[in-house]
Design brief:
Elements lengths: L9 H4 L13 E9 L3 H12 L4 E4 L15 E2 L7 H8 L1 H10 L2 H12 L7 E8 L2 H16 L5 E4 L1 H7 L7 E10 L2 H14 L3 E3 L6 E3 L5 E4 L2 E10 L10 H4 L3 E10 L4 H7 L5 E4 L5 E5 L5 E9 L7 H12 L8 E11 L6 E5 L3 E5 L5 H16 L4 H7 L9 H22 L2
Parallel strand pairs: 1-2, 1-10, 2-7, 4-12, 10-17
Antiparallel strand pairs: 3-6, 4-6, 5-6, 8-9, 9-10, 11-14, 11-15, 12-13, 13-14, 16-17
Helix pairs in contact: 2-8, 2-12, 3-4, 5-12
This protein binds flavin-adenine dinucleotide.
């Protein structure tokens, strides 16, 4: 049987030790079968267990194998589209609910870390950095917008103030969110998995769901076993493949790449990011970076549409890092890796139900660390019969990619090229 290890990364190399988990080799029954042990699956499992459900998680590879164990580690609140865009699409009542939830994911992460004593280098403080006056204007209106929904902790920074928190000359200003921050993402997933097990949940690794038998009592098949459940939660996101064709048709896996320097030492690290905040810029094809617990710089950026693995990640990302921090020109890159997130045409998440008992959440299009934690809570609420917040997400429109599965990659790349050009021209 296939034994898929973690891809080589800084996170895999610095992961907290955990015992291996078995593959499913039996026929079992459970209340909820969760497919995928990333944040969406683990957060759903935890909320369900806390509410008395019996939960079984099937993971094709290992806990946090997907984006949840490879991401930039940035706790970025809200969604990949602004609330005013959402409001225009679904109306004020739904927008009000979604707006109120926009910062809840970050709170859930902090609650999880505290309640289950998860060792994942959690740090407070995230910066949105503006590269042009237009982007700064956008941050100002975004702050006003978020305040309308009760999120008043944000601080605008002028050019001088942002230079105090990040030693990069590219920015004209920015916005600081102290409810943002950063984590070691794989260790967060591993800690959440341990919490699932501490509450009696079961996680099977190396156990891909290969077929779902739909019906009143759905059955999930793996190569050597099956799980009969009252409910199924599909949480495979960009790694799901074609298991659920309805979900594959309206989303597109995309790759994004990350590099990690050698340890910089306390002094150099502090000179770059004195308060240890994480930073993302405001471009459509954005760069994002932060320090690790052992004072390396993790720098991410770039998108590969269609999720092909680029040949030389360092050659793509290092020049971006040196543009932001020329002072790192002699610093060695110790790790470089790629991971897949799931893009939707609207860039908003797709949440819903297939038939009566198969629930899903996917496609947060980049800003997923907080959203996925919220999604787990909202899915668990729906399974408990409280669907108001679930419905607010489920009512967001889902669009198929133009050109279908064959042409969605070139069309999306064309769109990104256009927005990338706008970023470059500062328009
Ligand atoms: C390189 C990178 C950097 C990123 N940086 C950030 C960031 O800094 N901040 C931020 O907010 N977001 C970031 N994101 C996005 C964020 O990581 C994701 O949105 C989020 O982790 C998605 O979580 P998930 O649980 O939905 O999916 P995943 O974490 O991808 O988990 C899906 C899991 O399902 C499993 N699976 C799939 N199919 C099956 C099956 N048939 N049977 C069983 N298991 C299956 C997979 O093996 C995988 O473990 C980044 C993403 C990438 C790739």
């Amino acid at each position: 049987m296939a034994n898929t290890p973690y891809p080589e990364s800084y996170y895999a190399a610095s992961a907290n030790a955990v015992p291996p988990r078995p593959a499913l080799q039996d026929d079992i029954e459970t209340d909820v079968c969760v497919i995928g042990a990333g944040y969406t699956g683990l957060s759903s499992a935890l909320f369900l267990l806390e509410n008395g459900f019996k939960v079984t998680v099937l993971e094709a590879a290992k806990v946090g194998f997907g984006a949840s164990g490879r991401n930039g580690g940035q706790i970025v609140n809200s969604y990949s589209r602004d609330i005013d865009v959402i409001e225009r699409s679904v109306g004020p009542k739904q927008a009000q609910l979604l707006g109120q939830m926009a910062f809840e994911g970050g709170r859930i992460i902090r609650e999880r870390v505290a309640k289950y004593n998860i060792q994942c280098d959690l740090k407070d403080g995230g910066v949105f950095a503006a590269m042009t006056a237009k982007q700064m204007g956008h941050l100002e209106s975004q702050k006003r917008l978020w305040e309308r929904f009760g999120h008043t902790q944000l601080e605008l920074m002028d050019q001088r103030r942002i230079r105090d928190v990040v030693a990069c000359d590219q920015y004209v200003g920015g916005m600081l969110d102290m409810s943002g921050g950063h984590i070691h993402p794989l260790n967060l997933a591993l800690g959440e998995a341990a919490a699932v097990e501490s509450l009696g949940g079961t996680i099977y690794e190396q156990s891909p769901a290969v077929r779902i038998e739909r019906g009143a009592n759905p059955v999930v098949h793996t190569p050597q076993g099956k799980v009969r459940a009252k409910f199924i939660i599909v949480a495979g996101n960009a790694y799901l493949g074609n298991l659920v064709p309805e979900l594959a048709a309206k989303s597109m896996p995309c790759g994004t790449q990350v590099i990690t320097t050698e340890p910089l030492g306390e002094e150099l690290a502090r000179s770059l990011l004195p308060q240890d905040y994480c930073v993302e810029d405001c471009n459509y094809l954005l760069d994002y970076y932060r320090l690790t617990g052992d004072k390396r710089l993790i720098f991410g950026g770039g998108v590969v549409y269609g999720a092909r693995d680029p040949a030389n990640i360092e050659a793509i990302i290092r020049p971006k890092m040196l543009k932001a921090f020329p002072q790192l020109k002699d610093v060695k890159i110790d790790y470089a890796w790629t991971g897949n997130f799931l893009l939707t045409l609207s860039r908003l998440p797709q949440v819903g139900r297939l038939g009566d008992n198969i629930y899903y959440s996917q496609g947060c299009s980049g800003h997923g660390v907080t959203y996925t934690h919220l999604a787990g809570k909202v899915l668990a609420e729906a399974l408990r019969g409280q669907a108001e917040r679930f419905d607010a997400f489920a009512d967001l429109p889902h669009y198929p990619f133009p050109g279908g599965q064959l042409l969605r990659t070139p069309f999306a790349a064309l769109g990104a090229w256009y927005y990338g050009l706008r970023d470059k021209l500062g328009v």
